[in-house]
Amino acid sequence: MHEPPAAGGSSPAWALILGASSGSGAAIAEAVARKPGLNVFGVHRGRYPDTARELEARVRDAGRDVHLRQADASTPEAAEAGADELLQRAGPRSVKLFVHAIAGASVGHFLSEGPDRLHPRRIQRTFDCMAHSFVYWTQALVQRDLLAPDARLLGLQNPLDETHLGNTGLISAAKASLEMYVRHLAMELGPKGHRVNLLKFGTVMTPALRHVYSPEALARLEARHAAMNPAGRMGTLEEVARFVTVLVGDDAAWFNGATIDFTGGMTLKLLDLVLNP
Q1: Residues 6 or more apart from 35 whose CB is under 8 A from it?
Q2: Which of 114, 161, 165, 197 has the smallest number of Cβ neighbours within 10 A?
Q3: 277 found inside a domain
């Protein structure tokens, strides 16, 4: 078993990343391995094995330890098992950063009579993936004394709390629950010196998007975001990841219970685009 970090910080602390093999999770894992230099314990479902191997190599190139666990991270049992493995690997009080980047949601309509009906199993699965698992893992980390002093816990949010997109009602509801979990956990963990926040950012190009959309549809998506965003383009995974490295640092220590808007003003022009197309 690895020794826990020394009190003086001579051994690097760890980042726990759920959804680490691709997209925002992978980008954040690589970024925090380089700055401030965290080891990475990642959990992923195994859908992107090539990118998972690439992430391992990049983290090791940064001089940090890395361990990727292939498992469904969304259930209470998964959180318990994963936290046990993390404790064995990293030791107590080792987790400086916990990032919840699980993507697993159903799209559809609540009252549809067709195949897009959001039946109870889909609802439960979406809430487990996108909201409840944040609590499950936080509970498991606290019970095992895995949080390092001044640990940062971070959920990820999207702009669907400000606007509506046809078939994403279930995602919006789950993310609203996540926001409430973040606020209440911030109150419970604040006296212990930890910080719990939510980072909200807009659409970024990920392997999942490229898998779902055709090249033509992706081009339209980028063009519409260029019209919508004040900067005239989509945000990038690298920009999101770099900002997370800021949130781990001492200068961001007063953020707590916050929903941090990192959308680049993505929704500011929506009404103008509708009224003045």
Answers
A1: 245
A2: 114
A3: no
